[in-house]
Amino acid sequence: MEVELSGARAVWFRMPATTQDPHRSTTGTDTMGVSFTGHRGAVVERPSGRRDRLEVRRNALFVTCGEPFDWVHVGEPYEGVEFEISDALTAEIAEATGIAPTATGGGGVLDPDPVFWAAAVRLRQHATGARLLGDLEGDDLVRGALMHVACERYGGRPPRRNARPLDGRRLGRIVEHVDAHLSERLSVSDLAETASISISHFHEAFRSATGLTPHEFVTARRVERARRLLAYGLTREQAARAVGYTAGHAFRRALSRYGG
After folding, report:
1. Distance from CA of residue 45 to its chain's centroid?
2. Which of 100, 128, 134, 159 lies 20 to 30 Å from 240 when distance is taken between CA atoms?
């Protein structure tokens, strides 16, 4: 299952063993992911035709840069999550952490990383319908995981945590933008552009000003609008659609958590 995020595309997959080459699966360039399953002697094939044997630990983090590869022999069923990262997001993370965009150069299979694993688990919850991701939550998820890997694995420095809060004028523009697009998909980049602030500084400045993450803020605004619509006599289904939900569990949970 694919999930489009701001600056990345996430893919959750569950595949049968490839011992008899019944199929191939491809891991593209500029990808980070987690293998929930471990494999001894998995074989991948490069575009040049060269084949490499990999030892993959359960929950291992893997990174590719510049060269895709096909999984041509895996001895058991396998499952994982991949994040295909855009050049723009790579540059943004590099600028925010002070590393060169090519710092992850060699790639490869790395040791398990609990932060990136948690992001992959959250994406799997969404893909299986167990706990759906909000649009802004997905943006927060992928950026936070990539920032962590850049700092912990490639020598980056964490962004400063003392960002000045957004002023009232910028917050006012954000509120107007959010309220005008509650039924649509919103992204962190949308809100940062509305506030005329870089994405790398936006999240901390926003939370410093409001006490909420962008996802929490937008969810709360959606719930407030939905409560008013319900009070006006709209059905649950009508109110949910008007603020970008279906009338399912995610909507009921949001009403309970943010609306009482």
Report:
1. 28
2. 128
Instruction: Report yes or no: 31 and 71 within 8 Å, Cβ to Cβ.
Output: no
**Rounded CA gap, 26 and 88, in Å?**
22
Work out the number of other CB atoms within 10 angstroms of the CB of residue 155.
12
Pick the CATH number of 168-259 from 3.30.1070.10, 1.10.10.60, 1.10.1740.10, 2.40.300.10: 1.10.10.60
Nearest Cα neighbor of 27 from 1, 51, 78, 63 is 63
Nearest Cα to Cα of residue 53 among 73, 32, 81: 73
Show pLDDT as tens, one digit a residue, over the chain (260 residues).
888 888 889 999 998 888 766 667 888 888 899 999 999 889 988 888 889 898 999 999 988 876 788 888 898 999 999 999 998 898 889 888 888 766 655 567 888 999 999 999 999 989 888 888 888 888 888 888 998 988 988 889 887 665 677 889 999 999 999 999 999 999 998 999 999 998 888 988 998 888 889 999 999 999 999 999 999 999 999 999 999 998 888 899 898 888 76
If 0-12 CB within 10 Å is exposed, 13-18 middle and 19+ buried, where does residue 9 land?
middle
Strand runs labelled E in 94-242: 108-112
In whole angstroms, give the CA distance from residue 10 to residue 82: 6
Separation CA 199–CA 71 (nearest Å): 35
pTM over 0.70: yes
